[in-house]
Amino acid sequence: MQRIFNDSEVLARLAPIGYQPGTSGPGPLAATIARDLRKWENVVRDAGIEPQ
User: I want to staple 19 with a disulfide (CB 3.0 to 4.6 A). Which of 14, 36, 44, 47 is the partner?
Assistant: First the structure.
């Protein structure tokens, strides 16, 4: 993946849609996922959304 995301042609095709690839590794990815889960759990709970 790092080789692909370092390819200037790939980056040029992704830039117009606002995609910025991250290739920092599994640790930072796990931290991002955990942070996002906490954020959206709070949003769902505060909105009173119940599972269907």
Answer: 14
In 10 A of CB 14, how many CB atoms? 13
Q: Identify residue 42 by its one-letter amino acid code.
A: N
The span from the CA of 14 to the CA of 39, in Å, is 26
Alpha-carbon dihedral sign for residues 26, 34, 43, 51: positive
The pLDDT score that the predictor gives to residue 1 is 77
Phi and psi at 48, nearest 5°, equal: 75, 25
Per-residue pLDDT at 21:
81
The pLDDT of residue 33 is above 90: yes
